[in-house]
Write a structure and sequence with these properties.
Strand content: 15-25%
Structural class: alpha+beta
Number of helices: 18
Radius of gyration: 27 Å
Largest sheet: 7 strands, mixed
């Protein structure tokens, strides 16, 4: 098999395969899809946070000319008798049944051939509710008499949730506990004890392509075109809801205009499927930007952290309590509570650890996975806490971290020994790039300057499965079939580079077939920075299988297997340019489940992500305005498959977290979001971006990864918030413990420090 590639594809910054299609407007998106006879759906939503549905009056909506049908939750039962879905709990109805649990919940849908007609008619629906007590705060939800769900109904997807089946009179969807060593003794014997509480706010994913799905019914099957990160899960769940075999449900996903975790599991797919089956016509629902605020959010959280520290600055014990605000429906919150919760003590070598992590139902919009999967909330707490300890002990913050950092070969709090996690290297490179050991100008007058540093880590979700197929054509080109969804992260290009590396062919000769569950094989989902490692390994195995079959075919023909061009092997076999070679690969890493009582595991994750952030800020002491002037992002990504894509992932993640740090916050009044628009919900604009953003992937190898690689999409988020808060304290000597770090919040603590607090 002759090598035709001039340079090694893996490790090269090859231009994105889809780049030209995107910049010329030729890339396919579900929003552009039009089908013959298609109906458009517009949703009528609840205006209260919690209440029994007494009456839904749709007469005025039906009377609008052009309306095809108005559908309520009871109508859905005609095609789906048990219309409840969810990855962790079957708790979310396709349309509200019996009661509503948050303001903005879908209650009814109007269908029309013209979306404007459907929208006008939806505005004429009237609903009457019997209001019930509501709970909005995650800590209050622990003991509140306002119960969001009468009975807990685990989906059965995750075995460790089965013990919750049938539990009543509780808002606790999951309680996770980790116990290591003897924390009580550690606190008794400590020279110093520090305790702080931190809070994070509810924010939004806000992909610039909002949620959109189309269902197209046939005689005995259904095709769903959807902007989803998890097409395989969508097929499985829709088939379950309908009581059909999976081969009757087809899910097709083109490019996504961003996802960030919002477009996972079931969002609009169950609704359009039911509507299409009721009407026997294609149905499309495209949400507005405002409606994203009512669909899925990031968990607000309250985090209490307490540390025991010895005289020489060694952390000997740590106790963490985390309360996650899951909103009205669990989505994947229980997984975040557990799979991220076990890292709450931070990337430090602590012998005695006690963690309690709770997933709570409240009467706010549902929360789910958002870039980082709960880790940025945890890092916000433990890296702010770490700086506070260092300052109280009058130690340099970086030196304090060095003294306690978790190093290769040492056990993490779960008992899993750290392998291929360059935590100490990331810390050192972040400090070096920040010139930490050199004098720093803190400014004068009303503008003060400061710098801060933070580091975090994340375990990839396990166990999960990925499958890939490589189809080698007789001319030496090939197609890669995999269900990884390219949503802007460059996965098509990275996967093609892996195939090119194995087969020795140009990346340009490889077509990546987009997810289509009738064509592409199973993949758990595109989430949690798992794709490069999991699907990358499956793709590598599929390409190696193809290569091995090709070389065997060459040897059968009496040809030199290593040097004969691919097309010559086929010609010798078939006498012409004909035939195919199919290779397949399936990958699922090893995993040891955590003990239910202690959270201990010998193998809790196949790989660790590590991200460090350094920040420099200017603070205006007269207004509280914070300007981030420099942001340094350092990460362990193993070996970068495509260094340029890695750099854009690091900076993109950091900028997203910058918005969550400085400005973004969903504001609620009586459970209703009152800033559900980009006019009032402030995401970073170009003028908010720091003039100096630096990115670095440290020299590292993930030995179990494809060509030494692992995921990178979230690592840039980890340390941004605490690094900026630490820099603010370095500049003006005040500590903020709640996000976001707005000018008003900074000004308030400055005034309080001066003994002249602002009055509310």
């Amino acid at each position: 098999m002759a090598k035709t590639a001039q340079t090694s594809p893996v490790g090269s910054s090859i231009p994105r395969l889809e780049g030209r299609a995107k910049v010329t407007g030729r890339a396919e998106y579900v929003h552009n899809l039009r089908l013959p006879g298609m109906l458009y759906g517009k949703i009528f939503r609840s205006t209260i946070a919690h209440g029994r549905i007494k009456r839904i009056d749709v007469a005025a909506a039906r009377a609008v000319p052009g309306v095809h049908r108005v559908v309520t939750g009871q109508d859905i039962r005609a095609v789906i008798p048990e219309p409840y879905y969810g990855p962790a709990f079957h708790d979310q109805p396709i349309l509200a049944l019996d009661k509503v649990r948050y303001a903005g919940e879908p209650v009814a849908v109007v269908l029309a051939s013209d979306p404007h007609v459907a929208e006008e008619a939806a505005g004429r629906i009237v609903a009457e509710y019997g209001e019930l007590p509501a709970v909005y705060d995650e800590v209050e939800a622990m003991t509140s008499k306002a119960i969001v769900h009468d009975v807990l109904k685990p989906a059965g997807t995750f075995p460790d949730l089965k013990h919750l089946q049938g539990r009543k009179d509780t808002n606790v969807a999951l309680d996770f506990h980790l116990r290591r060593g003897d924390t009580e003794r550690a606190f008794r014997e400590a020279a110093h004890v520090f305790e702080h509480t931190f809070r994070t706010q509810q924010v939004l994913h806000l992909p610039l392509e909002p949620f959109v799905s189309v269902a197209d019914p046939a005689e005995s099957s259904l095709t769903i075109h959807t902007a989803s990160q998890s097409p395989s899960f969508v097929r499985t769940e829709i088939a379950r809801l309908l009581g059909w075999p999976e081969n009757k449900v087809r899910v097709k996903v083109p490019y996504l205009g961003g996802g960030f975790g919002a477009k996972l599991y079931i969002k609009l797919e169950a609704l359009v499927s039911a509507l299409a089956l009721l009407t026997r016509r294609p149905v499309k629902i495209s949400l507005t930007m405002e409606e994203q605020f009512y669909t899925l959010t990031k968990h607000a959280a309250t985090l209490r952290i307490k540390s025991a520290v010895s005289k020489d600055g060694k952390i000997t014990g740590r106790q963490c309590e985390v309360w996650w605000n899951g909103g009205a429906y669990a989505d994947i919150g229980p997984r975040i509570t557990q799979k991220s919760g076990f890292t709450a003590a931070g990337p430090y070598d602590i012998e005695n650890v006690h963690i309690d992590s709770y997933a709570l139902y409240t009467n706010l919009p549902p929360a789910g996975a958002l870039r980082g999967f709960g880790i940025p909330q945890l890092v916000w707490a433990y890296e702010s806490h770490t700086d506070l300890i260092a300052r109280e002990l009058k130690m340099d913050p970086v030196e304090f971290r060095r003294r306690n950092i978790l190093r290769e070969g040492r056990p993490q709090a779960t008992g899993t020994v750290m392998n291929d996690a360059a935590i100490d290297t990331v810390l050192e490179r972040t400090a070096e790039r920040m010139s930490w050991g050199k004098p720093f100008d803190h400014g004068s007058g009303t503008i003060r300057r400061g710098r801060g540093i933070a580091i975090g880590f994340k375990a990839v979700i396990a166990p999960t499965t990925s499958v890939a197929i490589v189809n080698l054509y007789a001319d030496g080109s090939c197609a890669l079939y995999c269900s990884t969804v390219d949503m802007g992260q460059g996965s098509d290009t990275a996967m093609a580079q892996i195939v090119a590396e194995v087969l020795g062919i140009p990346v340009e000769s490889i077509t990546v077939v987009h997810p289509d569950t009738d064509v592409t094989p199973y993949d758990m989902a595109t989430l949690g920075s798992r794709s490069t490692f999991h699907m990358g390994n499956a793709v590598r195995l599929a390409a190696e299988d193809t290569r091995d079959k090709l070389m065997a075919l060459a040897r059968e023909q009496g040809l030199p297997a290593e040097t004969t061009p691919i097309r010559e092997v086929f010609r010798k076999k078939y006498g012409m340019q004909a035939g195919n070679i199919l290779g397949s690969g399936s990958f699922i890493p090893t995993y040891a489940p955590m003990d239910h009582d202690t959270g201990q595991s010998s193998n809790v994750t196949p790989f660790w992500m590590v991200g460090g952030t350094g920040a420099e800020v200017e603070v205006d002491t007269e207004t509280g305005h914070v300007k981030v002037t420099r942001l340094v992002n350092v990460a362990d990504v193993g070996k970068a498959i495509n260094p340029e894509i890695v750099e854009t992932q690091l900076s993109g993640a950091a900028i997203m977290q910058l918005g969550f740090t400085l400005s973004e916050k969903m504001e609620f009044r009586n459970g209703q979001c009152i800033n559900a628009s980009l006019a009032e919900y402030k995401i970073p604009g170009i003028l908010d971006i720091p003039p100096g953003i630096e990115n670095e992937a440290v020299a590292a190898v993930q030995k179990s990864g494809p060509f030494g690689a692992k995921g990178v999409g979230e690592s840039g988020t980890f340390g941004v918030s605490p690094a900026i808060a630490n820099a603010i304290e370095d500049a003006v000597g005040v500590r903020l413990t709640s996000l976001p770090l707005t000018a008003e919040a900074v000004y308030r603590v400055l005034r309080a420090k001066q003994g002249n607090p602002l009055q509310d």
